[in-house]
Amino acid sequence: MDWKDRMTDWFRLAFFYGDNWISILGGILTTGTGFTLLWSWFRELASPHSASPYVGILLFILLPVVFLVGLVMMPLGMWLRFRKMRKAGTAPEVTPKVDLTSRHIRKVLTMVAIATGLNIALLGVATVRGVEYMDSSKFCGLTCHTPMIMEYRAFADSPHSRVGCAQCHIGPGVDSFFAAKMAGVRQLFGVVFNNYHRPIPSPVESLRPAKETCEACHWPQKFHGNQILVRNHYLDDEGNTPSITVLMLKIGGRSGEQNTGIHGRHIDTSERISYVATDERRQNIVKVTYRDDKGNLVEYFGGEAKEGEKPRPERKMDCVDCHNRPTHAFESPEWAIDHRITKGMISRELPFIKKKAVELLKVPYRTQAEGAAAIAKGIVDFYQTSYPALYRDKKALVDAAAAGVQDAYTRNVYPEMKLTWGTHPNQIGHQEGGCFRCHDGSHSTKDGSKTIAADCDSCHTILAQDDPDPKILKDLGTR
Ligand code: HEC
Ligand code: HEC
Ligand code: HEC
Ligand code: HEC
Ligand code: HEC
């Protein structure tokens, strides 16, 4: 038998056994998705706009999976058919031998090898793209984790909106990637069966240590000096009078060999503070251990466990104990409105807008859509009935304000997720516990000789407080 017959035999065999619906479907799937993938990558090269999250799932996850399935189906179908026929005794007699010395057989084998190589390369690129995509913020926040829409919105509105979710939540390394994806699979079941926690619990315990996340970008040894903080608030009077607070925060850090100020006292390579809380949110702190500059351990006690609470495992203080909302900061109703008046989304010209807006925000609504509608209606109704002339002349301002208040609501409250004002307290100041969890003047050593500082000057100098027009801002040249 010469090579030609052998080849025809081989092909015949492949065609013969390949003639089954599994292999044919496999062939169609692989070529179809292969071309689609190639086409989408070329298109992306031509116009690198990121795809919408749902297109993303299709392109980066579904298509490669289908491609792989098709690839496996082809030989599988052949093998199944072969087995079935052998059992039935209908398999053809001739089983062609492969003569590797034949140049043409080698050619065919090379072709097969190249095709396989191409397929593997295609699959490799598809996998890398898929992994990249699964790590992207859009995927985390919008596609897979719809219950995290509020974290995504808060994130998109924060200084870290260009830092990926994965950079804080997953961190570097293959092990953390797989750990996160396994957790993701569990969460997927949660979403499918609709039995996940509402609101999503804060995962400080499962967060990577700040050393591996925050400190990859922020170098604690580099902090020093003071920082001016200007807070624009508005009173709830008719004129929405500005009430401005100016603080000089003693951030400090390391200067020379000294650790000073807010950062210097708490963050250090020797990890100097640990504490014991009695509740999950760590709002109630009963014991604080501090390594002083001489290396001695000082223990402060204060507070009391509430009914049913007991001391939780000791935790070393790190960045996230103060900066717990570096990117998912939820506002208070007052601050949400102040912030939007300052940004110009809500006009200060509208009488009592601050008071009315906060009032409407605080009403408990059943769903976000219901709340948003009621709020817009509430604002419009208020000006229509109480200030009809103004409403006639400045309807555009009123409508814009209604939209601004709606935005304040939808950015912070998700009744469907049981997320509302105050659900996720921010520990950075002392509005919601924060520094005063320890610096409340009641955390002292057993013998009472030392107390954690609580005087207003230890953390900041108040340069102006509740001042409609602070002189200090004029002196600084900002007004
Ligand atoms: C700058 C770091 C950082 C980035 C970026 C980040 N997170 Fe977080 N995230 C945190 C920290 C810290 C907490 C814990 C908050 C706490 O304990 O109060 C948290 C908590 C959460 C929680 C728990 C619920 C809550 O609000 O406390 C979810 C869900 C979450 N993040 C999702 C996301 C998603 C989705 C993204 C991307 C869109 C993202 N995170 C990006 C730092 C980050
Ligand atoms: C991938 C890099 C990266 C990581 C990781 C990161 N940050 Fe940042 N962070 C930034 C950048 C960049 C800015 C400055 C943003 C700006 O000025 O608009 C910033 C700003 C900040 C600010 C100042 C915010 C403000 O209002 O000016 C704080 C506080 C902060 N980060 C804390 C943290 C904490 C806490 C973590 C860990 C949970 C963290 N960051 C993780 C890059 C990062
Ligand atoms: C004891 C609480 C506390 C701890 C712990 C802490 N910070 Fe801060 N940090 C503050 C306060 C307070 C500010 C002032 C800014 C503010 O009020 O938002 C600040 C400011 C910052 C800023 C902005 C500084 C600037 O000059 O713009 C960054 C960035 C920052 N912290 C990162 C970190 C990182 C990273 C860690 C952990 C290594 C950390 N912080 C640990 C309380 C803390
Ligand atoms: C878990 C408890 C705890 C929390 C929360 C905490 N601190 Fe502290 N802080 C301490 C301890 C302990 C010391 C050191 C006390 C000593 O000197 O013996 C300290 C010291 C300080 C000092 C130095 C005071 C001085 O007189 O030398 C400053 C400033 C400070 N903290 C600011 C803050 C700020 C700002 C926050 C909130 C963003 C905060 N701390 C949150 C425990 C805490
Ligand atoms: C342990 C440190 C610490 C102590 C003690 C402390 N503060 Fe503060 N305070 C802060 C920090 C940090 C902020 C900034 C929080 C932020 O970034 O939102 C702040 C913010 C403020 C603000 C501005 C709040 C706003 O949003 O307008 C006022 C007012 C204020 N403090 C008053 C006081 C007074 C009065 C005392 C004394 C009873 C005091 N603080 C004691 C750390 C402290």
TrEMBL record:
Subcellular location: Cell membrane
GO biological process: anaerobic respiration
Gene Ontology MF terms: electron transfer activity; metal ion binding
UniProt keyword DNA-binding, yes or no: no
TM segment ranges: 21-42, 54-80, 108-128
Ranges of residues in domain NapC/NirT cytochrome c N-terminal: 108-197
One GO CC term, this protein: plasma membrane
Chief localization: membrane
Keywords: Cell membrane, Electron transport, Heme, Iron, Membrane, Metal-binding, Transmembrane, Transmembrane helix, Transport
Family (UniProt): Belongs to the NapC/NirT/NrfH family.
Name of the featured protein: Cytochrome c
Species name: Mesoterricola sediminis
